[in-house]
Amino acid sequence: MSARIDILSGLGDKGPAAIVVEANVKRILLDAGGALHPGEAITWARGLDVDAVIISHDHVDHIGGVSELPPTLPLYCTPLVAQALPKGRAWQPLPERGTCRIAGIEVTTGQAGHSLGGVWIHLGVEGGIFYSGDACFESQLFPFDTPPPANIALLDASYGTYDQPQQACVDAISEHLNRPLAFPVPESGRALEMALWLAEEADARGLSLAIDPIIRANLKTLLALPATLRRSHSDERIEALLARPDASQPSLKLISDRDDTAAMWPGFHLLHTGYLTPSRCAELSAGDILWQRWNVHLRASHLVELADQINAEHVVPLFTHLSDPALSAWRTLLGARLATEKALFLNNHVLNAIPLNNRSLA
Length: 362
Known about the structure:
This protein has nine helices and 19 strands. It is α/β, with parallel strands linked by helices and 362 residues long. It has two domains: 3-161 and 296-358, Metallo-beta-lactamase, Chain A (4-Layer Sandwich), CATH 3.60.15.10; 166-291, no CATH class.
């Protein structure tokens, strides 16, 4: 069975995720990403013709474009991710860890180590096509399942060639805890493990802490899931946090990110730990906010390790810049395995780029 891959969005820059895989005369859309920046149009959905869509997780750059799709298009996601769909949107369950068939294609999923309900996706065609969505090896809360072998790997490279270990990030954030801080975070991702860490740090330092109710609710949801869907030995930490009352006048606040700006939090320093929009980059340059990464994506050595684990012959780094000097660095890291074309064709496990004049999906 030959296969064709068209990366509609997400290659060459940090942008919405949208990838079409065509095999056995069926087309599956992997993720339906929305705009990362206010006011940006979602262009990848124009003229789209697919048989099904699979959503890896509930962050806006992977699920925010669902509203652009026909409401009758079969959509597959895990039950927790379904909660972030537009109200009334029909969906079909995707296993948190397991195998099913979608549009006649064998689909295997596993835990991606990134967010509540998030999974990686493996398609059983042409020696295997693996899509990580967003993934991380370093979470102390969300497990990462080793995927099956795959000929081609479409991997989360959001951090580019950055390779700083998580402990170094945590140590750097710790240096700021002596001042009033508000942390805007995605409520189903790093928020959960940052909540556990901040609670322990607050106790150790005698600091006061308040945690957004929706983050508490997501921790409660995680605790109610089968134990295999969270890291071992995390239950007691989650239970202790849920039993801990919020301080009425906290010096530390963990909040669900609602496009917060420094002006919205007088008396606090805003400390961001993830992707910065252009407006937030301007705030950072002006000294109005703080920033220190908390790892929730594959860093460079882990991306290479994952490619090695699944014996990938071809690796496409997604959601990252692919112009020099970054491109040269990727060539050094991945060698002949590096693939950077938006349109690819697999036949008998051989990968070829599709000429520019033959890239229509119609």
